[in-house]
Amino acid sequence: MQKSTHNIWTKPFLMALSNNFFVFLVFYSLLTVLPVYVIDELHVSEAKAGLVTTMFLISAIIVRPFSGKIIDALGKKKTLMISVFFFGASSFFYFVISDFNLLIALRFFHGIWFSIASTVLVAIAADMIPEHRKGEGLGYFAMSMNLAVVAGPFLSLALVQFIPYSSLFLLLASMMVVAFILTFGIQVSSAAPSEPKAARRITAKDLIEVRAMPIAFVGFLTAFAYSGIMSFISVYAKSVGLFESVSLFFVVFAAAMLLSRPYTGRLFDQKGPDSVIYPSLIIFAIGLAVLSITQSTFVLLTAGALIGLGYGALLPSYQTMAIQSAPRERTSHSTATFFIFYDLGIAVGSVVLGMISGGLGFTSLYLLSGAVVVVTLFVYRYHSVLAGKKRRQASEALEL
Fold first, then answer.
1. What does the alpha-carbon distance between residue 160 and residue 26 come to, in Å, rounded to a whole number?
2. Which of 100, 170, 347, 394 is the most buried (most CB within 10 A)?
3. Could you tell me which residue ranges the Major facilitator superfamily (MFS) profile domain spans (predicted)?
4. Superfamily for 208-400?
């Protein structure tokens, strides 16, 4: 596929970005509304309700290491169409299933296709973006996921106040029909020739991109800290009498992220990742500290703005670094490796921080989350210094 050496906003890129938005919109909508649905409609306990999230993440984490191998075997376009088709088809079953055990099985199956679809979409987008604008382009692409973080919960929680759960599920499934149609317009660069069948035995190299692991671990720590917002912000706001303001928190979060994204993406490309990641981690930590002392709408929204500015720039920066850590033909493996660690961070963080909130309260939860971000800064510093040393050694070797 021929592409401009400068333009990011091509028609295929916009289609891939829209596809990514729909996939994550459905993911975050279901993530938010299903626990409430199974408690209210299927009459299960709160402990069991957590399984609808856990089973989805378990299957996604299990499949992530194999995503790169699957993409290599089938090609990016075929993998995209198959994964989006089955992710969308799975979405229709929420409309008809009324048994909790069947719902848990569906969540496991749904997580498989989410894992593959989200991995291949990033790999496709990375191939479309000119190398010298990689940070900016992937930042815009990641913004589709960040917008879904806001739009999904806002949409699902607002609609269920006026329509039945079944109608909401049908609406979400219909969105995936649109996403599948969009896959036909996404052009994908030609893949390298397939390797001989004898060489197709799965090895560790097929599952994990080792060069992406350092920044993926930084992503794990960041996701751990962010999981406290994903999982508990609504409960926390309700406990301090600010439940009506939670939707505004996400609106401010999104606005701060959108306003900063073009600037931080260009800064990443022009000045390097350190110029974005260090200040973003500091702002994210401050935002969590402010959130921990929230007693008014103003303070809650201030925290939302700070967290949007900080966290909003981190995920696309990490993804770009993971992709740039390995050759282009390993893009899908680098992406899969990063998301394995990110998914684990969300899953582990939700459990650990949930235990802390039950024993010590939400103030301690968000203070600990902020402390984890501070630790992340030092871990990233170590990674950055080590990476710089390796680059200098490689440069000196070339000069010799």
1. 15
2. 347
3. 13-387
4. MFS general substrate transporter like domains (1.20.1250.20)
pLDDT at 392 over 80: no
Split at pLDDT 50, 70, 90, the class of 24 is: very high
As a three-state string, the secondary structure of the chain is CCCCCCCCCCHHHHHHHHHHHHHHHHHHHHHHHHHHHHHHCCCCCHHHHCHHHHHHHHHHHHHHHHHHHHHHHHCHHHHHHHHHHHHHHHHHHCCCCCCHHHHHHHHHHHHHHHHHHHHHHHHHHHHHCCHHHHHHHHHHHHHHHHHHHHHHHHHHHHHCCCCCHHHHHHHHHHHHHHHHHHHCCCCCCCCCCCCCHHHCCCCHHHHCCHHHHHHHHHHHHHHHHHHHHHHHHHHHHHHCCCHHHHHHHHHHHHHHHHHHHHHHHHHHHHHCCHHHHHHHHHHHHHHHHHHHCCCCHHHHHHHHHHHHHHHHHHHHHHHHHHHHCCCHHHHHHHHHHHHHHHHHHHHHHHHHHHHHHHHHCHHHHHHHHHHHHHHHHHHHHHHHHHHHHHHHHHHHHHHC
| CA proximity to 310, closest of 280, 343, 334 | 280
What's this model's pTM, rounded to 2 decimal places? 0.76
Residue ranges covered by each domain of the chain: 1-186, 208-400
Type of residue found at 8: I
Which CATH number does 1-186 carry? 1.20.1250.20
pLDDT tier, 397 (very low <50, low <70, confident <90, very high otherwise): very low
Contact present, 91 and 176 (Cβ < 8 Å)? yes
Which residue bears the tokens 């925290």?
A: 303
